[in-house]
Amino acid sequence: MCGGGGKGTGGYNMYGGQWGNLTPQQQTTTQASPQAIGWYQDAMAKAQAAAATPWQNYSTDPSAFVAQINQQQQAAQQAAQPAQQPQQPPVGQ
User: Fold this and answer.
1) Cα angle vertex 31, ends 30, 33, to 5°?
2) Cβ contact 65:58 at 8 Å
3) What is the pLDDT at residue 29?
4) What's the Cα-to-Cα distance from 35 to each of 29, 38, 39, 41, 47, rounded to whole Å?
5) Which of residues 45 and 7 earns the better pLDDT score?
6) What global pTM score does this model have?
7) 25-49 pLDDT, tens per residue?
8) DSSP string of 69-92, one letter each residue
9) What is the distance between the alpha carbons of residues 47 and 39, in angstroms, rounded to a whole number?
10) Distance (Å, rounded) from C-alpha 1 to C-alpha 43?
11) What DSSP letter does each residue of 28-68 carry, written as one string?
12) 9, 21 contact by CB (below 8 A)
């Protein structure tokens, strides 16, 4: 049994306090504000609409998922290209 409550009603919560032994006079209830209820209902409606929307592929072209190289990046690649060419090994090796 979780909480170590033993037999009967009540038990202890993880902070050492008792729970479950409150009489109706000791219990209180709260209600969300009308504004919060409206926010909840709005969020739930949007979530339900999103869940009802069928999946649509963005693209089947892999280049559509990656930003293309701009002119500055292309110029830098071209400038660095000679340094990337294979070199002859030093003489005598």
Assistant:
1) 130
2) yes
3) 81
4) 18, 5, 6, 10, 18
5) 45
6) 0.38
7) 777 788 999 999 999 999 999 999 9
8) P-HHHHHHHHHHGGGGS--PPPTT
9) 12
10) 37
11) ------HHHHHHHHHHHHHHHHHHHSPP--S-S-GGGGSPP
12) yes
